[in-house]
Amino acid sequence: MNLVFSRRRLLAGMGAVGASLMMPRWVLADDISEFQAIAQQAWIYAYPMLMHYQTLEKQLLNPNAPEYVGGFNRFRHYSQLYTPANREIVTPNNDTPYSWAWLDLRSEPQVLSVPAVDQDRYYVHQLVDQYTHNFGYVGVLGTGREAGDYLIAGPNWQGPTPSGIKAVLRSETEIVMVLGRTGLKNADDMPAVRALQQQYRLRGLHQYTAGPAPTAAAPIAWPAWDSKSGLGPAFIGVLNQILALCPTQPSEQALRERFATIGIVPGQPFDFAALPANQQQGLIAGIQQAQAQLQTAVTQTRSTLGLFGNREAMHGNYVNRAVGALMGIYGNSVEEAFYTGSRLDNQGQPLLGGRRYRLRFAPGQLPPASEFWSLTLYDLPDRQLVANAIDRYCLSSRDALQADSDGGLTLMMQSGAPEQDASSNWLPTPQSGAFTLILRLYGPTQDVVEQRWRMPVVEVVSV
């Protein structure tokens, strides 16, 4: 049944007394300024979840999409580095090949099994719920280098923990994304990465325990997604369907009740056209204000501290969560990795193709990371890798970089090859157009977390 969210239609079917008793809570947001403010807040709240759903739609629901992973509860491994042709996510990580999976936890938990790895091998499996919280990690920094079985459970599972399970990782939502990253040491290391990826394993709990299969969960009525209109008023209808798989958390009870006053109700349809004209205008204005608020917040962000993490780490800061989704969705929590960078030079001007730049780390000031660091270049505004003649998209501590005479390190960013013999330290830029640099530190030290270490400025090199 297509319920239409319209005060006029509701009142037409009710007497005056009945209306006062039966009117849905959301239609009580009569004050247009309040309606607009709630719309602004709700859009900021929804943005990361909508971007997450956009990824899900490509990887899980569209078999014809190049990003399709093959269905629930199975891995798709990418056994090559990302190139400019891969555009399914923004700011793709170009130094650890990915392994993607989507888990449906409604009928039973899934068990993630990982192999033992050597001391010089990095890997991580990041567990992301539908809020885009990083609620759990399995990897060398979080759980160690030994082999192990880890149970990933949904919000309603109450069963006993089977023997052999090292830890139970519980999601707040029924659908979970697993994003695996396996460190690639160099081009010759790819066969070893592929062999390791094949040892990552997902099994239903009944398969792990050799028990009977559970009753299958009902098919999910996934909402249609249109990237052109999905961030407009249609966001409410999509969000309502997403929230049907996201039980309300106690910390969000009041927020959900506030959102319900403009039609955000889990599982319910939403008809923008049926709203009164003043509410339509208020909703559109709130969305526009939210988008401007997000863009402003992005321009003021210099690192990923506070942008990614579990619910406790995010402290209810929904603007930061949205900034993280816009700047680079699925960033790791700071305990796992730290991201910083710049889109401006030392003169405060945008980094532009066709100009020459350098990034110098003074002696003793290399990025402090226990595993490794990398510097990657992305175009703007798309934040995708940039095609270049030598197919080089990042520089890393695992590369054979040439140190300065004093023990420091200078990296060059320009479109043409350096005149001096410094090609090992050269990161090609586009011929024209704006770009940004992202520095990733895997296993950041406390100096990074406590902001005692900062990335140097990107300097303009005179011609």
Structure description:
- With 463 residues, the chain is α+β, with helices and mostly antiparallel strands.
- It folds into three domains: 28-58 and 223-328, no CATH class; 69-209, Sandwich (Immunoglobulin-like); 336-460, Domain of unknown function DUF1214, C-terminal domain (Jelly Rolls).
- 25% of the residues lie in helices and 21% in strands.
- It is built from eleven helices and 17 strands.
- It has helices at residues 7-12, 16-22, 32-61, 190-197, 205-209, 235-243, 253-260, 277-299, 311-314, 318-328, 446-449, and strands at residues 76-77, 98-104, 110-114, 123-128, 134-139, 148-153, 165-170, 175-182, 201-204, 337-342, 357-361, 369-379, 394-396, 409-414, 426-428, 435-444, 459-460.
- Strands 1-2-8-4-5 form a five-stranded antiparallel beta sheet. Strands 7-6-3-9 form a four-stranded mixed beta sheet.
- Strand 4 (123-128) and strand 5 (134-139) form a beta hairpin.
- Helix 3 (32-61) packs across helix 6, helix 3 packs across helix 8 (277-299) and helix 3 crosses helix 10.
- The protein starts with 6 loop residues before the first helix and ends with a strand.
